[in-house]
Amino acid sequence: MKRLRFQPRFDARECADAFADGAILGYPTEGVWGIGCRADRSDRVAEVIALKRRAPNKGLILLASEPAQVADFVLDQSQLERARARWPGVYTWIVRCSTQAPAVLTGGRDTVAVRITEHAPMRQVLDHLGTAIVSTSANLSGRGMRERTWLTPWGAKLDGWYRAPLGGLGHSTPIRQAWDGAFLRGGPDKDD
């Protein structure tokens, strides 16, 4: 498996190749550092959950550069398109999932969280990869984020880090329900 542990420069194709090969990587997002792997590799997704010490019933976010990359996981693509029509803004959307979406992604729910990223470094990676990855913040569950997450002792357990700039949001993305726009995390009346 390709490892990027000490990658000194920005290289979207190399990061995409490592994801394609099954790597679990740390990477920048719009607001915080994330960890993830290919969404269609349930074995590796389970490892992300274990590494994060995340409760399996929480599910994970699917990160993609285009709606087509999440088509196998989303029940109704038009629901995602309706949600995207509410932009501008950086949001993760909860949509109804297809029966093909494994419980390891959804936490056993009939929904899945999806974000079509506008973050340029990750868009380049996902465009090269051609499929979605799972995404969760790069901190242990229940602990806050750190500015330089890749220096934490547990971070060395990843297959590598794609070091590129964060998107400048400064916090995790707000999460909204696609069918009614309600905020589940963040938003105008909730703490981020």
State the distance separating the first and last CA atoms. Answer: 36 Å
Radius of gyration: 15 Å
Contiguous uncertain segments of 5+ residues: none
The CATH homologous superfamily name equals DHBP synthase
What percent of residues adopt helix (DSSP H or I)?
A: 10-25%
Tell the overall outline: globular
- The count of β-strands is 9
Overall pLDDT confidence: 82
CATH topology: DHBP synthase
Oligomer: single chain
Beta content comes to 15-25%
**CATH architecture group name:** Alpha-Beta Complex
How does this structure look, described?
The protein has one domain (12-184): DHBP synthase (Alpha-Beta Complex), CATH 3.90.870.10. The protein has 192 residues and is of the alpha/beta class. Strand 8 and strand 9 (183-185) form a beta hairpin. The protein has a 9-stranded mixed beta sheet, with helices on both faces. It starts with 11 loop residues before the first helix and ends in a 7-residue tail after the last strand. The chain is built from 5 helices and 9 strands, in the order H-E-E-H-E-H-E-H-E-H-E-E-E-E. It has helices at 12-20, 42-52, 77-84, 103-106, 120-129; strands at residues 25-28, 33-36, 61-64, 92-96, 111-116, 133-137, 160-161, 175-177, 183-185.
